[in-house]
């Protein structure tokens, strides 16, 4: 093959418009990290097994290593950088911090985005068993998952208490 | 690792996709959800020269139900079928099976038809197609053609698709209101491929004897397999526990079970028998529960 094919990609990340020129084989996670400098999204296994690179594309949690950047053209992407607003951590991030739901932090962005997407989907996350199942696509090698599950359940219970009826 | 360089082309519709596949040559592949193809490319187990992306083909995004089948277009994701307002009511077996496919994040992009075209021997969707005697429609240079499920799966990761052809849609016949069904699988972790899986469908006639049986095993051989002799032997039985256990043993004896590092032949046969006994009982309960209700009313709760 001669020169690799290049594509101009225009997408929105956390509400902001971005453009980049990428090769066909560039994945979405490489676009985010290497082209746009958004290194909050981590890249682990690069084959869809670990969940570290999970971002939200068009409202749905997606493996950013299993989607080519060119496929994100004209798409809305949310990353972990979009969870805090005005320097204030989001509720889920705070709960992760309070529950020590991270040690090395490599998997954390993926867990946060998977859980955010699950809340957006209206999944019931007040039950620890349901949370474990819902987060089963994300791997953590430090915490043993218990504090992660506790953090998500706490946020779910608080949200439930706030919901009238 | 990174995928090797390739040429990317985005198809607008089926006609455009077929033209692009022809133009880009024999090493071009269809990219649908990419949840199997992209990891294989990252590991360089697959190295296509070109990909034709069909995810934005509007004509392949349809989920249509009739009284007899659910038709799923090639660009429809598993998640879209799971969340479709009509699909769960019409085809609860398919939707239940999709719940076993990877994780929600994989199902967000992975397509139903892509699972068929990928033809992993341990995958659930091919097993549903085979169990319910579905049909796959192709488009290609020689025009459209339809292939029945039993002729579609040729071997591990091999289908009846010819060069330049692509899957357009798959038709999943609906279980009858009187049909009881079950899917059971053993996987090491939630979301993993099945070490062994089974799908069973049973119908009882007015005389309460078995009128139809479908027994499918997956993850045990190069393709999903039907145990047709065991199915035939069940016809006319009263579906007593002894009949179900005999069918489970007969099915395991009939199928050429393969072993690998995830499970030896002996282990897989043993697990197959246990899962079949369980699935056949669940399927039997489905038939009798429906018979007792006496009418098809309220059948669509997903």
Please tell me about this protein's structure:
The complex is a heterodimer of chains A (165) and B (302). Chain A is an alpha+beta fold and 165 residues long. In chain A, 32% of the residues lie in helices and 16% in strands. Chain A has helices spanning 28-35, 91-98, 108-120, 128-134, 146-162; strands spanning 6-13, 16-23, 54-57, 60-63, 76-78. A five-stranded mixed beta sheet of chain A has the order 2-1-5-3-4, sandwiched between helices. The mean pLDDT of chain A is 96. Chain B has 302 residues and is an alpha+beta fold. Chain B contains twelve helices and 14 strands. Chain B has helices spanning 14-24, 37-42, 78-82, 87-90, 92-98, 104-107, 112-118, 124-131, 149-152, 228-234, 241-254, 265-293; strands at residues 7-10, 28-31, 50-53, 63-65, 69-73, 135-139, 145-148, 153-155, 158-159, 166-173, 180-186, 196-204, 210-218, 225-226. In chain B, the strands form four sheets. Chain B has a five-stranded antiparallel beta sheet with strand order 4-5-10-6-7. In chain B, helix 10 packs antiparallel against helix 11. The radius of gyration of chain B is 20 Å and the shape is globular. Classes of the chains: A alpha+beta (165), B alpha+beta (302). The interface between A and B is medium-sized, with 32 and 32 residues.
């Amino acid at each position: 093959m001669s020169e690799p094919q290049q594509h101009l990609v225009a997408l929105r990340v956390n509400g902001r418009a971005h453009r980049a020129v990428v090769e066909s084989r560039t994945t979405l996670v490489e676009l985010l990290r290497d082209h746009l400098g958004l290194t909050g999204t981590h890249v682990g296994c690069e084959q869809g097994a670990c969940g570290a690179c999970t971002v939200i594309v068009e409202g749905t949690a997606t493996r950013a290593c299993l989607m080519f950047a060119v496929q994100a053209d004209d798409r809305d992407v949310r990353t972990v950088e979009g969870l805090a607003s005005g320097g204030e951590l989001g509720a889920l991030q705070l709960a992760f911090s309070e529950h020590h739901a991270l040690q090395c932090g490599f998997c954390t962005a993926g867990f946060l985005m998977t859980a955010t997407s699950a809340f957006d989907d209206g999944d019931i996350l007040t039950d620890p068993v349901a949370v474990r199942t819902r987060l089963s696509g994300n791997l953590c090698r430090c915490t043993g998952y218990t504090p992660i599950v506790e953090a998500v359940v706490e946020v779910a219970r608080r949200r439930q208490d706030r919901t009238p009826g | 690792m990174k995928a090797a360089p390739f040429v990317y082309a985005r198809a607008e519709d089926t006609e455009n996709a077929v033209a692009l596949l022809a133009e880009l040559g024999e090493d071009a592949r269809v990219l649908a959800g990419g949840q199997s193809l992209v990891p294989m490319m990252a590991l360089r187990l697959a190295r296509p020269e070109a990909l034709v992306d069909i995810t934005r083909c509007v004509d392949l995004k349809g989920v249509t139900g009739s009284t007899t089948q659910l038709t799923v277009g090639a660009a429809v994701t598993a998640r879209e079928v799971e969340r479709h307002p009509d699909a769960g009511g019409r085809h609860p077996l398919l939707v239940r099976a999709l719940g076993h496919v990877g994780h929600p994040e994989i199902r967000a992009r992975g397509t139903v038809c892509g699972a068929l075209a990928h033809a992993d021997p341990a995958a659930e969707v091919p097993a549903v197609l085979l169990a319910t005697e579905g049909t796959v429609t192709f488009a290609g240079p020689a025009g459209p053609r339809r292939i029945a499920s039993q002729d579609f799966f040729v071997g591990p990761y091999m289908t009846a698709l010819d060069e330049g052809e692509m899957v357009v849609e798959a038709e999943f016949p609906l279980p009858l209101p009187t049909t009881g069904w079950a899917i059971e699988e053993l996987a090491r972790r939630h979301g993993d491929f099945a070490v062994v899986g089974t799908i069973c469908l049973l119908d009882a006639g007015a005389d309460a004897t078995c009128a139809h049986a479908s027994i499918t095993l997956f993850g045990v051989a190069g393709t999903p397999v039907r145990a047709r002799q065991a199915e035939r032997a069940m016809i006319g039985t009263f579906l007593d526990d002894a009949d179900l256990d005999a069918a489970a043993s007969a099915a395991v004896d009939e199928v050429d079970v393969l072993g690998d590092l995830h499970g030896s032949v002996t282990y897989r046969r043993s697990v197959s028998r246990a899962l079949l006994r369980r699935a056949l009982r669940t399927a039997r309960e489905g038939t009798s529960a429906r018979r007792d209700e006496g009418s098809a009313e309220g059948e669509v709760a997903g």
